[in-house]
Amino acid sequence: MSTAAAGSAAGFKAPGTVLADLLPASRARDIALVVGGAVLTGLAAQLSIPVHGSPVPVTGQTFAALLVGTSLGARRGFASLALYAAAGVAGLPWFSEGASGWSMPSFGYILGMVVAATMVGALARRGGDRTVLRTAGVMVLGSAAIYAVGVPYLAASAHLSASQAVSLGLRPYLLGDALKSILAMALLPAAWRLTR
Description:
Layout: H1 3-10, H2 27-45, E1 48-49, E2 58-59, H3 61-72, H4 74-89, H5 107-125, H6 132-158, H7 162-169, H8 174-194
Antiparallel strand pairs: 1-2
Helix pairs in contact: 2-3, 2-4, 3-4, 3-5, 3-8, 4-5, 5-6, 6-7, 6-8
């Protein structure tokens, strides 16, 4: 029995497949997924809790961005988060706390989400969202990508030292990121099990 046949018999989808690929393929599907991912991220951004002393609130948008990337794959994940960022820069008030534009200190995190969605989408195509442990690793790497762009942008835009930027733009969010990762670890492998 071939590897592909064995995988099919076991109920697994072939490597290189992301959750969105399970829908019938069409250009209309891809457009709807890209727009839907951007809208989901915009809605999740409105779940916002201010953090005392920091210009960066805790939001649901980072979780949404990582979920969109893993579900849609790198190409559509990039397009979805790029659309989210571009529409917000153009004036659509769907960044956290109803903000728009690019001049806010937290805009670097939005750019980081575009990078992260692309990266986790590529990892999902390699099976990174199929098991709890793999999903945990993908979420950690995606979060790291967001911070790798967001924290330096915060430091530059708010005129902070590197240590100040880490204190204000990284440390207060680690617990929340861990909880989001746990949620993703439950959701994504479960979604694959349901497709069997």
